[in-house]
Amino acid sequence: MEIIKGGVTAASGFKAAGAYAGFKKLKDNQFKEEINDMAMVVSDKPCNIAGTFTTNVVKAAPVQWDMDVVYNNKVAKAVVVNSGIANAATGAEGMKACDDTAKIVADAFGIDKKEVLIGSTGVIGYEIPMEKIDKGVGLLKEKLSDTIEAGTIASKAIMTTDTVNKEVAVKVIIDGKEVTIGGMCKGSGMIHPNMCTMLCYITTDANITSEMLQKALSSVVPDTFNMVSVDGDTSTNDTVLVLANGEAGNKAIDSENDDYKTFAEALLYVCTEFSKKMAGDGEGATALFEVTVKGAKSKDEAKVLAKSVVSSSLVKAMIYGHDANSGRILCALGYSGVKFDPEKVDLFFESKVGKIQIAKDGKVLSIDEDFATKILSEEAVTAICDMKMGEAEATAWGCDLTYDYVKINGDYRS
């Protein structure tokens, strides 16, 4: 696998664009080009598609629309996204806005409205102003390009409280053909396991059936996006979509053979990188916080333990304060619901400056506090929990909890 530059336009046959349609308020000294709030991705050919969506009972209108397209139509050519209004808790009007949006895009490109996927992110409870959608689609169509830069502009257009855009792309060889998988995502707050506040759009030129594409996506989501937590809130709009147009020309992947495994491994890498990027860019965060649980009895138990630690507000605050308080991690493990022997647990902290053990056999150790502080002061910090109960392990990703998280969310609507 080769890691390459780019995102949604890295794969052959995909174009993208970003534009300012007026969903976001312009602040002093900002230009429209700097605050694009609509994005589009279009494939030259119809794509087989797959998706996973929020587990929140309150599902935004675009989530409901996309679920219908993925599960029933199974083919799409275009994705259009607005940033600034979530189109959630909007009732029948919200669904009509999706239908109207799809018709506008379909008419612009001469396709069926059920070949249009829709994404929205932003404030809940506001209706979509269709005049802005109409304006935005027109602008986006004019700007569509297959360049890396166009993909980057699109990735910036879907940001809300994100501080950086998020793109990943890789190449692999399948059936002697070069296959590319690339994508863009946004996510910074209202993020918790069982999907997170994220919109993620992945494109590939692989020739793969919709059934195998869905199987691959569903197989990697539990170990990637479902292992991210920023603040314990599961959003109404979470959506991950994969579009495959087959332009690489490989023999169709229609079973779980070696070609499927190669594709799934590459997709796993892409989704893992997106998970890390979202966690590290959590609202107000200063550090990516990774929790690896080793020696658990089962993979499921390892996941529960890792999520419990990475989601703990006290542990997250501890990371922000660079304080190696092993008691908080032991506590989070203990209330996870998993049964284990607390007198067997070893705990470590690790970052690029080194590694330190902070507990042995469940007992807090006397440590070099200055060295521990240095480890915890890095931009990426890992807590390692060795349960010494089995062979299973799992990793979860989160971030520290800072004053700025409250500031950002205290006045989010205004």
TrEMBL record:
<comment type="similarity">
    <text>Belongs to the ArgJ family.</text>
</comment>
<keyword id="KW-0012">Acyltransferase</keyword>
<keyword id="KW-0808">Transferase</keyword>
<feature type="binding site">
    <location>
        <position position="186"/>
    </location>
    <ligand>
        <name>substrate</name>
    </ligand>
</feature>
<keyword id="KW-0055">Arginine biosynthesis</keyword>
<dbReference type="GO" id="GO:0004358">
    <property type="term" value="F:L-glutamate N-acetyltransferase activity, acting on acetyl-L-ornithine as donor"/>
</dbReference>
<comment type="pathway">
    <text>Amino-acid biosynthesis; L-arginine biosynthesis; L-ornithine and N-acetyl-L-glutamate from L-glutamate and N(2)-acetyl-L-ornithine (cyclic): step 1/1.</text>
</comment>
<feature type="binding site">
    <location>
        <position position="283"/>
    </location>
    <ligand>
        <name>substrate</name>
    </ligand>
</feature>
<dbReference type="GO" id="GO:0005737">
    <property type="term" value="C:cytoplasm"/>
</dbReference>
<keyword id="KW-0511">Multifunctional enzyme</keyword>
<protein>
    <recommendedName>
        <fullName>Arginine biosynthesis bifunctional protein ArgJ</fullName>
        <ecNumber>2.3.1.35</ecNumber>
        <ecNumber>2.3.1.1</ecNumber>
    </recommendedName>
</protein>
<keyword id="KW-0028">Amino-acid biosynthesis</keyword>
<dbReference type="GO" id="GO:0006526">
    <property type="term" value="P:L-arginine biosynthetic process"/>
</dbReference>
<feature type="site" description="Involved in the stabilization of negative charge on the oxyanion by the formation of the oxyanion hole">
    <location>
        <position position="121"/>
    </location>
</feature>
<comment type="pathway">
    <text>Amino-acid biosynthesis; L-arginine biosynthesis; N(2)-acetyl-L-ornithine from L-glutamate: step 1/4.</text>
</comment>
<keyword id="KW-0068">Autocatalytic cleavage</keyword>
<feature type="active site" description="Nucleophile">
    <location>
        <position position="197"/>
    </location>
</feature>
<dbReference type="InterPro" id="IPR002813">
    <property type="entry name" value="Arg_biosynth_ArgJ"/>
</dbReference>
<feature type="binding site">
    <location>
        <position position="409"/>
    </location>
    <ligand>
        <name>substrate</name>
    </ligand>
</feature>
<dbReference type="GO" id="GO:0006592">
    <property type="term" value="P:ornithine biosynthetic process"/>
</dbReference>
<dbReference type="InterPro" id="IPR016117">
    <property type="entry name" value="ArgJ-like_dom_sf"/>
</dbReference>
<feature type="binding site">
    <location>
        <position position="160"/>
    </location>
    <ligand>
        <name>substrate</name>
    </ligand>
</feature>
<feature type="binding site">
    <location>
        <position position="414"/>
    </location>
    <ligand>
        <name>substrate</name>
    </ligand>
</feature>
<comment type="function">
    <text>Catalyzes two activities which are involved in the cyclic version of arginine biosynthesis: the synthesis of N-acetylglutamate from glutamate and acetyl-CoA as the acetyl donor, and of ornithine by transacetylation between N(2)-acetylornithine and glutamate.</text>
</comment>
<feature type="binding site">
    <location>
        <position position="197"/>
    </location>
    <ligand>
        <name>substrate</name>
    </ligand>
</feature>
<dbReference type="GO" id="GO:0004042">
    <property type="term" value="F:L-glutamate N-acetyltransferase activity"/>
</dbReference>
<dbReference type="InterPro" id="IPR042195">
    <property type="entry name" value="ArgJ_beta_C"/>
</dbReference>
<keyword id="KW-0963">Cytoplasm</keyword>
<comment type="subunit">
    <text>Heterotetramer of two alpha and two beta chains.</text>
</comment>
<dbReference type="Pfam" id="PF01960">
    <property type="entry name" value="ArgJ"/>
</dbReference>
<feature type="site" description="Involved in the stabilization of negative charge on the oxyanion by the formation of the oxyanion hole">
    <location>
        <position position="122"/>
    </location>
</feature>
